[in-house]
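**Tokenised fold:**
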Amino acid sequence: MRTKDLSYWLFLAPVLLALSMVVILPLCLGIYYSFTNWNGIETGGFIGFENYINVFSDKKFMDAMWFTVKFSVVSIILINLIGLSLALIVTSRIKSSNFLRTIFFMPNLIGGLILGFIWQFIFMKVFDGIGSLMGVESLQGWLSTTETGFWGLVILMSWQMSGYIMVIYIAYLEGVPHELLEAAEIDGASPFQRLRYIVLPLVAPAFTVSMFLTLSNTFKLYDQNLSLTAGGPYNSTQMVAMEIFKTAFVELNMSYAQAKAVIFFIIVAAISLTQVYINKKREVEL
């Protein structure tokens, strides 16, 4: 028994060490620095909750937070709807299902910066060309306004993550017993009724996982935001991660940026854990 216990901890030790060095220790140091006037080189003096108090009166941070929340809500809904729809398509016994799975998942393999530059070219060059050719003014000057920048980010994120979320839904859809679906069909249930009363309740755990992943990824988005809009025009499409980065490395206000990061971490963690709790409770009720 002791040998098994020793081998268990020996194998687990590298993982725990890496987790401590990369996640836990930087988090603790970051929380400490947020209570100081650290400038990136010298720690400075302890100033208590001054940085945290200033955050809540920082208009740029609050605007970025509001934009991030709106973007996350819309993106989460669209990504999960598209991902579930794609999963239903590729599990419907069509001949090209394996090929379609590969095609739908491929956007997730492209890096965030590259993806942002690709869609920037599409929105600014392709859309502008189509708009000029067809006389559609709404397609011209795309990304030049807050509204089009917002939807540009939503489209980019939905295109990238839908295939990844599709894989999660596929795993649960393929576990739905065909006998139940066949019995419901014999009893006269329509495709919509089979989807609503049999398929969706049985894949409820997939919603918990997918919601958590999409929520965390959309809230902490940075690469795509940087390469697609760079926060423009006039920082109106700037998300929280970019706003914190600018505070730290452009304004060189490290401790203040760290306080923003701690608050952002608490907000995302609270929302994520609440979502998991609600969905888990719903799974039990179903």
Summary: Residues 127 and 133 are 10 Å apart (CA to CA). The chain has a mean pLDDT of 88. The domain at 50-285 is CATH 1.10.3720.10 (MetI-like fold). The chain has twelve helices and no strands.
